[in-house]
Amino acid sequence: MQPSVNRRVKITVNGKAFLVEVGDLNKSPISVTVNGQPYLVTIAADDLEIVPADSSAATLEAATRETAAPEKAPKPTAPAGPKVLAVKAPMPGNVLGIRVKPGDKVSFKQTLCSLEAMKMKNAIRSPRDGVIATVNITEGQAVAHGDVLFTFQ
């Protein structure tokens, strides 16, 4: 068994320098200290690259790869919520209080109707911004799980 050796390296990520000390790579989790702050790190076996201990520094440098912080997610340009074409009944029940009609503009999470199931009143909300194309239910109607209640344009 090889003796445990801590390695200190200076790593620069997006122009910011970090002093990193890596503990014994033969143990899991690995003890890592970044700018004096200790962390325990687990490396997945499929991400681990094994380099022989007798390799030169040039070989070790070639085995490393440059990484960068992920880019910030772009701001959504589409309406809120997924691009859902229909609202389906999440459970069997009786329709109460329909609050929209065809042509109404609705917003994400707006209540479309209520559904009574097992003596409880459940709000059925819009999964997205959009315009109601059809209302396929009437008040007092019994619906089954998966029945289409509303469609969007």
Short structural description:
Helix content is 5%, strand content 39%. The chain has one helix and twelve strands, in the order E-E-E-E-H-E-E-E-E-E-E-E-E.
Describe the secondary structure blueprint for this structure.
Elements: E1 7-13, E2 16-22, E3 30-34, E4 37-41, H1 57-63, E5 86-88, E6 93-96, E7 105-106, E8 111-117, E9 120-125, E10 130-135, E11 142-143, E12 148-152
Antiparallel strand pairs: 1-2, 2-3, 3-4, 5-12, 6-8, 6-11, 7-10, 8-9, 10-12
Can you walk me through this structure?
This protein has 153 residues and is mostly beta strands. It folds into two domains: 7-63, no CATH class; 86-152, Beta Barrel (OB fold (Dihydrolipoamide Acetyltransferase, E2P)), CATH 2.40.50. Helices cover 5% and strands 39% of the residues. The chain is built from one helix and twelve strands; from the N terminus they run E-E-E-E-H-E-E-E-E-E-E-E-E. The strands form three sheets. A four-stranded antiparallel beta sheet has the order 1-2-3-4, with no helix packed on it. The protein has a four-stranded antiparallel beta sheet with strand order 5-12-10-7, with no helix packed on it. It is elongated and about 75 Å long. 10% of the residues are buried.
